[in-house]
Amino acid sequence: MKETLIEKLLFFSALVSILAIILIIIFICSQGIPLVARVGIKNFLFSTTWDPANGQFGIATMLVGSLLVTIGALIWGVPLGMALSIFLAEIASPRVAGIMTSMVELLAGIPSVVYGFFGLAVIVPFIREYIGGPGFSALAGAIILGIMILPTIVNIACDAIKAVPREYTEGSLALGATRWQTISRIVLPAARSGIIAAIVLGMGRAIGETMAVVMVTGNVTRIPGSIVEPVRTMTSNVVLEMGYASGDHQLALFATGMVLFIFIVILNLVVTASLKAGE
Amino acid sequence: MNSAAIMVRGLNVFYQQYQALHHIDIDIESNKVTALIGPSGCGKSTFLRSLNRLNELIEGTRTEGQVVIDGVDIYAEDTDVVKLRKQVGIVFQKPSAFPMSIYDNVAYGPRIHGVNKRMVLDEIVEKSLKQANLWEEVKDRLHASALRLSGGQQQRLVIARVLSVNPAIILMDEPASALDPISASKLEDLIAELKTTYTIVIVTHNMQQAARVSDATAFFLNGHLIEYQPTEKLFVHPRDKRTEDYITGRFG
Amino acid sequence: MKPFGNRREQLIYYTICSGAVFVALTLVAIVAFVAIKGVGCISWEFLTEIPSRMGKEGGISSAIVGTLYLTLVALVLSVPLGVGAAVYLTEYQPRVSRFTRLVELSAEALAGIPSIVFGLFGFVFFVIFLGWGWSVLSGGLTLALMILPTIMRTSQEAITAVPVEFRENSLALGATKWQTTSKIVIPSALPGIITGVILSIGRSVGETAAVLLTAGSALGMPVLPTDPARSMAVHLYFLASEGISMERAYGTALLLIIMILIINYLANLSLRRFSYRLKG
User: Which domains does chain B have, with CATH numbers?
Assistant: First the structure.
């Protein structure tokens, strides 16, 4: 009696994740889809005019903004993350690796709003002073995000590298290959699927990040002429306007979130496919 | 002769499609030590585990036939598994103290069966530890973590834990194979003492051990019971050629 | 490992090492910068007074309480559900089961959803649909869904790591499944479960976007779960992005970092205890 009741309760707990994901999809889409249908999917995605007061809901500028900061973050975050992963898995002594791992954990633990604040207080003025433009820019966002995606990349890539069988490395070294030849030609290719997963997840982290970006990118709804000009991302759009939006405007913000959600789903599918291919 | 503590008739055990035991018939006598020997994968552990229905914890296991303990077929539909397992204790190969104090390890069984009075528990713990020849070594640190005990001590603790619920039968699955020789010999002494009170069935790889501790020995091969005899007879005059090959070390 | 062989190899070696050094320096720079600028702001009054004039003056006590309150509500819900789900999947389901796969896929999907999307969901579901308004309850439950995957996954790992012998020994003593689970399996896995819970606390404490959309940004001291609340992270966002008080922003950021440092330290401690407990 008691045993079956408990089993039912536990079963319900397990159901919650499934229920939650279904509810999230239903509630976000029920708000977003009607508006996209009314505005037209092409118009919503490709119009550069975001003017809620006049019923103009085009998020093209934000798509560009999100992609720009994300790609910018990957351009420097991925090489840095890979260097760190190789360092942790292949070079560092256990002691040093332990310390570095704690540091990466701390990087992961620092709230995004603190990164945003650091960007606002240090990186934005730096860009304004030494590179040009207003400082609030796609570049500032990319720099901050590049740091923020490091833990995601390092955690997964490092595990993938460590999972490469010792025999591969030893076999290669035994043939007279140098350490770097071994790493670049044997270890990294063998860990390929894990590394791809790491990069794609890092990308998901970057595109979904909100607070750090909204504080440093200036949030102007215009296609930027250069990376030192301000941009607005999809995430920023929601957090900036949700406080006062109503009616269609609010629905348009949900539609923005829906597009973001679809991006994430696609990225996750890529990760799953990549990991499966690696098996 | 009706001294059979366990009566097994036509026992078949399957793992998915694979048949691990073929039509086993055997009578195991009370207050004796019965050893089960045979090469790895011969079904002796499966047989042991079928005596208190532990096989059903493994997915895809199916059992046919009868195992009668104390006049009751334990595979009958209305058998209370919890009661059965209380009656038939088991000691596994790997000494596995729970991550709690020595006292709590031994008191675990009585507690789950509803004994909560401190005095009664104290008594059971002391008695069980004494029976398992562990009391003298641990009586001053009953509330220390059981994980700090050595392997041999942990194995005797596990036996005390089994004794605490007052079983009639104790199953042992290679209880000494993970122990050093001195701990193993202490364990063998303990088995000899315990058989005055309990019926013991022991699986062992070690034939000297089987010869030393057991009264009767059963030889298993490929899921079949090949030969079952008083230990002395089986080791000196095996009836079956395959038994002879095995005990003289020609295979396995 | 030995440095690499020839000139070119050494160049690569030093490049990789300098990458690692750069990351370490970046972390130190962020923490040191916030610490140096923020330490002067932290005082008894800062910790215990309610913000006034939008946070330009006074302390951040209501934001500290708001943060803890939201985290508490999130844990009250997500710990039983997450651990319960993990127990169900590991102890009550066959090892290969479609249901388990489905739950795990859902949890992975939940873990990948950006916080702002959780914020949108929490807003339309808890705040509007259930009519709870901007409140500690709405915010806490939204956070609960966000941290549920972490708690579930770490609990699953911790429970799976409990040796199968423990279960067999307990069942063989005549314990029921739930007795075995509640008295042997969960206690053995506890430090591992706690590690996951502590990491989730870190996530709730630092979460901003989702909290902003579901708990609001009221400056007052939250008392009832139905009161709106402002977390420290949200407070920091307003202080900095609206230029209300940079000095107080540094102080708030420093407090957040200190909390995260403590949380990470505790998580590591608990993880070490877990491996100790299982190895003996």
Answer: 4-247 (3.40.50.300)
